[in-house]
Fold this protein.
Amino acid sequence: MKREHTTSYTVEDGVFCRVRGGNTIHLCNFTAYILEGVIYNMGNVMMRKYAIEGVLFNGDLLPRIEVAVSKLSGMSWVCQWGPRPYYRAGYGIKTHLAAAIEYLSGEVLWRKVNLDDYDGIKYDEREKLKSESWCAYKKATNTIDKASAIENVILAHFHRSREDYERVPKNRRQWWNYPDFDIYAQHWIEANGLRLVDDSDTLQLLVIKYGKPERPMISQGRTYWNT
């Protein structure tokens, strides 16, 4: 008779573990829990994200981040916490780790954020954000802080591009919709990677976080969507 094994998940020594057939296997060197689910409503686009916080095996806190539900099992989002948290190599490890996070987080409560009524960021505020963010990038001493500064630069361009989009009559927008920030950032990075040509570590971190687009919607060196 074939012996059946069941899999469950637990926390041992401050890390997530998989329990199977009486054996306990460490999956990573941290724990992470889903605080809430957030649904961003952008009119024709709905984006579901998990808000996640974590703790390293030694008790150090890993701050709140937001992860697209569709990207949870890929685990590339862990790099947002820097190099210290890691998961084991091996077949199925990422799938089991994602399952452990969802299973041990329990029921997820969802809230909705309506971004359909766009009011943007004023010109002066955008220019200030860009200027301060580029300064922060140049002063930063580690890759995580540099990437965070670049994300704020992208945010300023995101709103400038969105403002331009809002000027287009609605009857001419039917064949394309303005993206959420994560999608815009993916295309901005593809179009503006040369700005970071001498900083491959920061560029790589941003690409890992946002991915690469299949069909670029921003021309090289530009920042406006659908150019």
